Amino acid sequence: MTKQEYALWTQQESPRSRGPVHIFKAFLFGGAVCAIGQLLIFFFEGRGAGELAPVFASLCLVVLSAILTGLNVYDDIAKHAGAGTLVPITGFANSMVSAAMEFKTEGYILGLGAKMFSIAGPVIVYGISASVIYGILLFLLG
Prior knowledge:
Helices cover 80% and strands 0% of the residues.
């Protein structure tokens, strides 16, 4: 097979890109997740949560994402939403629960518990490191 024949064959066999459709779906679903988060903030502010309203809204989004992942619903949503489900907080919760579910047959400690933090570990380490550096800079700069 020549290079030209191979190029023609790969072009015929490759799936057609539906970039604009995927981008629109990601925008739509990601925006919907953010809108739900904002509605939750309004809800908690109306209940007197004040400055803690965004924290409570984030917790609700994490718990909802974890529950949907545990029920195998999140993956079905992700098939249609694409990158729209990667809104940081829901995507992070999904990745933690997915890793834990994958290794639950190895037991609660070495399977579920250990593998859940294989994703969260680096995020926690770099988050704490960044906050320490930020604190030191704030202290030094007044």
